[in-house]
Design a protein that fits this description.
The structure holds 2 protein chains of 2 kinds.
Chain A (H helix, E strand, L loop, with lengths): L1 H33 L1 E2 L23 E5 L5 E3 L2 E3 L1 H14 L4 E6 L5 H13 L4 E6 L3
Parallel strand pairs in A: 2-5, 5-6
Antiparallel strand pairs in A: 2-3, 3-4
Chain B lengths: L6 H37 E2 L4 E4 L16 E6 L2 E4 L2 E3 L1 H9 L8 E5 L5 H13 L5 E3 L5 H14 L1
The chains are: A alpha/beta, B alpha/beta.
Chain lengths: 134, 155
């Protein structure tokens, strides 16, 4: 009698855990499908918040500018001269290639405007600024 | 002829076996699934980035219109037109009343104005449908930097 009670208890505890597993599985599948794995960021950059709704195409040359004016190209640290040279090389290959700027919102805007002018001198025609939605 | 096991003993061993397998496999499965769940929750990002087209003076050099562009300066939270403070609504009405729709509006950050403050003004103007916007530099900006570094050297 006692053995049968224990067996029943064990069975019920096993069965009561099944909905939990179902929910956890559903959550797991949701996060696996809906979430994209976040890339490790080279710099801690907070892009400016904007109402703009231009699409972000990931297949571009992404230039990072950190708070202290350090530069990064496609998530790798680089100095400004090499960066501009690489941009120029890319523009010689494909004039229409899009360059995306990811800059920190606290940077002086004049620095960014001056840099965009330098990029234009390297032949960049399509330049976009990465922004964070409201 | 060997005597086969009776039905009762078969059913008992099957029952016993399935119960055991159940008990053994469930707990590690839950552990692994939980760990996977925590991993995906921490590692995934749902942030959707947007982009804003940046038009620069050099780009438009070949399409410069004869009309002089309107220059709206942004100094921190203030808006300036010809060195006079204006409100956003004034800026919008000036932009709406300009001679032609082709006339470009230059947005010029002054001094230490941050990217965020500039983008906010550009958002307000483009939300009102004022389109040929471009950013121009403050001509005094580099001089300010050199002054600051000069001061630092003196100190």
């Amino acid at each position: 009698m006692k053995i049968r009670d224990e067996a029943r208890e064990r069975k019920t505890s096993d069965e009561s855990i099944l909905p939990l597993i179902n929910v956890v599985f559903l959550l797991l599948i949701f996060f696996m499908i809906a979430g994209t794995l976040a890339d490790a960021e080279l710099f801690d950059i907070n892009p400016p918040i904007s109402e703009s709704n231009g699409e972000h195409n990931k297949d571009t040359l992404t230039i990072l500018i950190s708070k202290n004016m350090s530069f990064g190209l496609n998530n790798r640290a680089i100095n400004k001269e090499t960066l501009l040279f690489k941009v120029q090389q890319k523009m010689l290959e494909d004039k229409e290639y899009t360059v995306t700027l990811k800059v920190d919102n606290s940077l002086p805007a004049n620095d960014v405007v001056a840099f965009t002018r330098e990029l234009n001198q390297q032949g960049v025609q399509t330049l976009r600024l990465l922004t964070e939605p409201l | 002829m060997q005597p086969g096991p009776d039905n009762a003993s078969i059913s008992f061993s099957l029952h016993h076996c399935s119960r055991r397998r159940n008990i053994i496999s469930l707990a590690p499965l839950i552990d692994v699934v939980f760990i996977l769940l925590v991993f995906f929750m921490l590692a995934s990002s749902f942030m959707e980035w947007n982009t804003l087209s940046l038009d620069t003076p050099v780009l438009n050099n070949d399409t410069v219109t004869e009309t002089k562009p309107i220059v709206i300066s942004v100094q921190g939270d203030r808006l300036l037109l010809d060195d006079q403070d204006i409100t956003v609504s004034t800026a919008l009405s000036i932009a709406a009343k300009r001679e032609s729709q082709e006339q470009i509006i230059n947005i010029q950050p002054l001094g230490e104005t941050s990217v965020q403050q500039l983008i906010r003004v550009m958002d307000q103007l483009s939300a009102a449908g004022i389109t040929p916007l471009r950013m121009v530099e403050d001509p005094n900006w580099n001089r300010q930097i050199s002054n600051q570094s000069g001061d630092a050297l003196e100190n």
